[in-house]
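Archive transcription. Copying these from loose printouts into the bound notebook so they stop getting lost. Printout 1 of 2:
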Amino acid sequence: MSRRGNNNVRGPTSALTEFLRESGINPALIARRVATRNQGPPNEQQPVAGPSTNNGVGSSVDNGSQSERPAPDATPGPQDESRLSGYVSDQLDEPEERSPVKKTRTSKRKVTAAAKARARKKAKEDGDYQSSSDDEYTALSKGMRTMGATGNSKPPVGSFESCAKCTKQFTVTRYTVAADPPPGYLCHDCVKAAGIDPFKKPVAPKKRKLNTDKRDFVNFEERRLPTLVSLCVELVSKHIDDIEALGNIGSVNMDEISKALAKNRSLNSQNAHLFYDVRNKALRFYDATHLTPPAFTTLAGLNPNLAHLHLDFCGRLTSPVLECFASSLPHLTSITLLGPFLVRVEAWIEFFRSKPDLRSFRITQSPRFDSSCARQLAESCTKLEELQLREVGLLSDEFIEPLCALSPLKVLDLANPGIGIDEDGWIKLLKRHGRTLETFNPSWHTGFTGAALRRGLGKHARLLSELILEGCESLADEDVARFFRHLANNTDEQESVEDTMDTTNDVSRVEDASTFNPPLRVLSLARNDVLSDATLTALLEHSGSSLTCLSLNGLRSLSTDALVLLKCAVGLRRLDLSWCREVDDFVMKEIVSAMPKLEEVKLWGCSRVKGNGWAGKRGLKIHGVEPNARRR
């Protein structure tokens, strides 16, 4: 590291560096000595000021041996002149004494020589020591490699020089390297032969990384003060035994407290008693993860008049608990369970036998529910109106016969199956339940094809208001567009031809011809990437004026012109346009300005939307814009 310049900042130095500084040895002195040595000194006996540094090892030995006697001054004094004459009358009887200055210099040399030896010994032990010819203090500096034998500066670029090694003439460039040892310069071929890269830039020394602790980043806002809801929940949970002192809380407030407990997953066997009452007709727990089987049994015992029971995340609900529900809840007509993994077939069958008045049965994620359970459900629950078998792993064509044996349903949800139902099975189901269906969800069934949509739902649906068609990969754009056009005007010629080939009763066909399905209120076509402009145009023509919730998530083929047509759906409250790549701020501005009731918009994956010019609408929640433009 170069120490040239006028700054006074100095870092820590080694003992050898300190010794060289005190001795007055610097790069300029070294360069002058090298040039003098190559030219040959005119007088071999001429004394040289300062210690010799011809080689690293020899100089240290000489300095060590010569440090025992005082070094003569460069300018002889009067005593030295008399001593040279051989006779000194004043010092015949007195021993020779050393001057204090020489003594101090000698002692300083001893200390620095010892420090120098220790430094070299340490460097040799660390493996960093090299021979004296490669010592960094005796080798040519970076500036000396551009100097010739006489110490002059490098010849100008473009001039001709003779190589010091091969004597071939070459042109001097900015990358020409001086010969080592001097004099002269090396041509490009000799530089390459010596293994030197003239184009290589000096590598900057790596800085040592400080041992600092890694910072932990969180992706949520850390609250320094607890929220009012958390304080209330904690207070209610702490004084659960004295909760009667609050008086009548009300069903609405109870539901809000239940939601607050679910957000913190704080509902347990102790504070669950807050929601129990013998007069309860309906009870819903949004997160029952921490409720144990005894807690579920207590729930049934303390709420004997329940008619509607809804339990989310009830993974600890077992077969004995379901049997307890069957015996302890005689008025139960509606049950919704999310995650009853542990309930076995026998418990389901016994539950259906004991509940002939069951009107709504909804389960999600029940891997043990099979066709025998569905058969018992059809035999016992003759008044059933709502059926949801979502994410049932064993759902297949074996369920078709027992499901067709059920009374006509208003709600049918068979989404996310493990196996799935084929096209013929769907046509049979819709022929049985299509005329009374109000909500229908065949999402993620590969067997739900365009023929099932047209010949099943399109032919028999009369009261349908909510349709969920998510992830139906067998549906084509033309199939869905034809279905909505048929619902709009019932003039599809191909449908009429197929109707004549059907074996249905002619009288029923005439009755159906005068009945049309009303416009839909809820529609989801998410994750059907083959659907495009034809589908959107047809559905807006049929249901645009009555839609309140619409999801077009993943319909990447929609064009800007088709998306602008959404402004005719003036009654929309929730709209999902996530991953529709053609959506931008201009489209959103036209849509939002035409929908006064719009409350929520989802725009995940819409990289062209920035929220400029439309995101400031009061009361509108916006999700997915980066940065999030949610404003209220």
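Printout 2 of 2:
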Amino acid sequence: MAANPSSCARAHHILSVLALLAVACSVTAASSSANGGGSIVVAVGKKSAVLSLRELEWFAAARKIRARYAQPMQAQILGEHKKAESARTAATVLELKQHFPTTIRSQPAGSERLLAADEARAASLQLPRAASTQSGQAVAEVPLTSGIRFQTLNYVTTIALGGESAGAVANFTVIVDTGSDLTWVQCKPCRYCYSQQDPLFDPTGSATYTAVPCNASACAASLKEATGAPGTCARSGSGSERCYYALAYGDGSFSRGVLATDTVGLGGASLDGFVFGCGLSNRGLFGGTAGLMGLGRTELSIVSQTSSRFGGVFSYCLPATTSGDSTGSLSLGRGDSSAYRNTTPVAYTRMIADPAQPPFYFMNITGATIGGAAVTASGLGARNVLIDSGTVISRLAPSVYHAIRAEFTLQFGAGTRYPAAPGFSILDTCYNLTGIDEVKVPLLTLQLEGGADVTVDPAGMLFMVRKDGSQVCLAMASLPYEDQMPIIGNYQQKNKRVVYDTVGSRLGFADEDCSYI
């Protein structure tokens, strides 16, 4: 333990803290005035933060959006088009939104259903997987936005499909998933489709649409690596053979249809010959979206298909606020510095590949702290950790979770400061914060291989179950067994610029306010 500072040093420290608090208060007042008295999260260093519980009340935002649910979402595909500084580098940036359930009221039944679905996905990831774009120098941006409209806890973005005429191009809202490879949308004539907000994609309306032939490599090895099963062949009504895909997810969701190519629009970029799934039979937990964007590592992922243009690099910034108008971003390519709005330098750690699970992105977490206090657990550094945008709540090895929970409980003052509340779904550490406006939350910092540190945003530490504050839970869960694969979900990635450099085999993290309004 370090020696106590002198009285002069202590006084200087107090004055510095007061100065910082004065700045924070002025920012808070300005933000409150600009936003009609709304609250903001005020971070206190990297160890703890004062969190307004109103930041977690996504129920109110859901009610506001519910009245507009039947209205089509306005397309935001034609984002700002920017030039990259590097002559060899191009990038496109897409808008990302987080989608929360629109039907949840004070009773948390809908939330429990969605967390149960998240548990099914996390469990499915534990199972091992069976084992030409246009040139250009463009920087295109597609927003990533808050997801109240589509009844899913995942983040979504908008893409365009179709080509050669303006009337042939249609916009579609898709879930962004780093744990999947094949991008797919529901198509006409759909034999068995779930309800979506956008119109179904009509292949007959696009002059650039082509079914992938059975003898194409995409139908065999590439499709098997991406989905776990090679394509099957069948003759169409015109007598030509077409490749059919069958994609099954561990939670029982599935998509089946024709493997095809068409022109895809990503922000200001247009790419020809993009291989995707034209889903004719689809069912599962996709909310009201049109399908899914696969950002995994195999040949059919959007990252690999666009690597000649964007260099195999992408990043995202997931908004923490639940407003339907709050947007983050998904960026394909390195781009220039203006593509990111990070407030700290990007710190990198090694990206780890697992041949048994080719689509996934892994990293090594070597240590952790809660509120600045080191956490000791046998599971730290013992196994590769999956980072996944499609899983909501992080799953930790039991030894790691129990150590983090114990230190969090000690610092948060459970039992003495805040009474306990019943557990909720997969969340077992909950508190009754009725009548409390703000709480001081100890923050989790993950120490990564190579020296990079990632501190979870205050909004990623607690999960509001009931809007009256009577049930607020630690937003992490334990895996059933110590030897299972830990997962860092999107809830703990809020307000971070997360960079995936597949060519350099590295993952980067930086602090960033991801709520671009």
